[in-house]
Amino acid sequence: RSSWLLLAPLLTPPVPVITVPPCSLCPKGAHRFQWIRNLVPEFGISSSHVKVLSSPTEFYELLKVQIKTAKQRVVMASLYLGTGLLEQELVDCLEETLEKSLQAKGSSNLRVSILLDYTRGSRGRKNSRTMLIPLLQRFPEQVRVSLFHTPNLRGLLRLLIPERFNETIGLQHIKVYLFDDNVILSGANLSDLYFTNRQDRYVLLQDSPEIADFFTELVDAIGDVSLQLQQDDTVQMMEGMVHPYQGDKMAYCEIANRRVMEVINSARTRQELLHAKTFHSSQQGSSLLSQQGAQASRGLKPEPDTWIYPLIQMKPFGIQIDEMVTETLLTEAERDARIYLTTGYFNLTQAYMDLILGTRAEYRILLASPEVNGFFGAKGVAGAIPAAYVYIEHQFYSEVCYLHQQERVQLQEYSRAGWTFHAKGLWLYLAGSDLPCLTLIGSPNFGYRSVHRDLEAQVAIVTENKALQQQLHQEQEQLYLCSGVVSSSTFEQPNRYVKLWVKLVTPLIKNFF
Fold first, then answer.
1. Taking the complete model, does pTM exceed 0.85, yes or no?
2. Which residue in the list 49, 117, 149, 175 is annotated as catalytic?
């Protein structure tokens, strides 16, 4: 009980300030989403470079293969690295690859950068830090381990809140795994559950150097304002950098904002110049084609049919791009459009709930049943978290029924024996289309934490290619096949009983999980 009282100073949520993005939706297909490039860089690629994965095992095996074949860089951002045998195998793969790189050239070109959260990565005696220290000791010139510490956990609060509970204040939650020019976007952490029986989403972007450069620079920027793990398990900031919890909070957040926005804006400028150059070349190419016939087209690079937009959300630093884009997508979704939205932790912000209930599109929202919630069966207070999610779900469903929106807004619960559920994102089907032309995939859960507390990143993938649209559709169908539709009778089941104290406490603490 006392642990919750320690959070009292933070129970009053800040009032969010939303700036409406410049938005001029084009009338046709995928091109209607080009307004997003007013906010972030736009990366045009061929759909043949995109592969949608479906299982934790496939994800794990791909990580190992990509590590073993990396020549220039391995960049991995996650909440934490687990401490089991599967995680150790990943570390061993990194060690072998670094060793081979040294033996091949004497001095290695391979660089490994790992970004984790400080509080989650430091939990327990054996933790993410102890797993990675051997790499730091053996390859000090090639390996960097950065541990992000939220600036909101400081002073008396930091001293009083115990381990695990301190993770409620704010985390590094981005999950991106890149190897040379190949990038994996996911919501999965580097832990054995996510490699075996914890369902998530995973997309591989192959041979995409500009996207890999962007996420390398983004992880470097966050790493620069994070604590650096040392060979003796101590941590220290880079020289001249403001400390996240000992230094001035406003100064730290301003520096962090500047570093991250530099990455976003410089990439955006680069991509605009590249787009202008490509457009000019294609104009020349089409002129040449008309003069010399079809043979002239063979040397031209094919026009992209898929566009990648990185969406960053770091409210502690005043960066809220993902929130702005998500709200605009929900606002602009037309009548008869369908949005399939999924989250492992159903705790939508009030703004997202209002948009879902007040707009015209059809919604199919997939969430975890209590038995596949990651906190199911946990000890102590955490064991009541699935019941709190049931209570939040019931409240939302009651609002849907009150507004007579049951046909337009449908809840579905994922249920699968022996598995837990962690998938998040959305698929957007335009009116009259059987296939999605846009998906969001990455770390955000669409909840208060994702919007206000944690560091988050996802990508919007927009495609005109039918084969890729089919891949995304199959991914959505596969997840929703393991679900049942929520109705009033759902909440009458014995396992949906919510104790009175949980109902009373949930409104106070819902912003922390």
1. yes
2. 175
